[in-house]
Amino acid sequence: MFYYALFVIIIGVDQLTKALVRRGLPLHQTVTVIPGVLSFTRINNPGAAFGILSHRTFFLTVMPLVLFSLVFLFRKEIAQYPLSFRFGLALCLGGAAGNVIDRLWNGGQVIDFIDLDFWPLDNFPLFNLADTAIFIGAVLILICITRLQD
Q: Residue 96 sits in which domain range?
């Protein structure tokens, strides 16, 4: 049950932050949060992470839905995996759902706004909280899978 709650919390926090950015930050405008470290710059990203698969809205919308279906289908088997795997999966699914919601309500684009300003990340692509959840979840899953094979 914890994983469902985490999934919903990730979606809620992601959508809340994007709504605040949509309301308070015009497109392509920047607000410095911590000078030299963090800014918020609002963009609409038609692709996936780092702008890859730009304008592949159908693919980027359908693939997470297929993933959700597979997780539902194999939920009993997934329940046998370690806590870190299930935690990572919940993060990935929550982040993916947050970005799918964006694509459906934002003309196939995702709102990205987190802008890292410090070296070596001063030219790092913008991202959002859903992307962060996906990244952390994927790292947890990878660590878990690596440990299972030892």
A: 2-145
- Kindly report the pTM of this predicted structure: 0.91
Q: What pLDDT digit, counting tens, does each position of 99-142 carry?
A: 999 999 999 999 999 999 988 878 889 999 999 999 999 999 99
Asked whether residue 150 is assigned to any structural domain, the reply reads no
Which H, E and C letters describe the chain, residue by residue?
CHHHHHHHHHHHHHHHHHHHHHHHCCCCCEEEEECCCEEEEEEEECCCHHHCCCCCHHHHHHHHHHHHHHHHHCHHHHCCCCHHHHHHHHHHHHHHHHHHHHHHHCCCCEEEEEEECCCCCCCCCCECHHHHHHHHHHHHHHHHHHHHCC
Active site residues: 112, 131
